Model the fold of this input.
Amino acid sequence: MKLHRTHCPQGHEYTPANTYLWHGSKVCRACRRERAAVDNLARRSWRKVPGLSKLVAALRREGL
Ligand SMILES: [Zn+2]
Done:
């Protein structure tokens, strides 16, 4: 694990505006926003779209 990362695993830059500390570790706001969007989409439509819950699970495994 690198101590001084400049980008998150998804390639977003760790700028002060895009980063906050949570339990002592850096959290990327862009990733958090994307994750929240995926969660919202899943909550709204998982009943309507067969397989979406599997897709969301796959995205989570990829770190989104
Ligand atoms: Zn990110």
About this structure: The longest strand covers residues 19-22. Helices lie at 29-45, 52-61. Residues 8, 10, 12, 28, 30-31 surround zinc ion (CB under 6 Å).
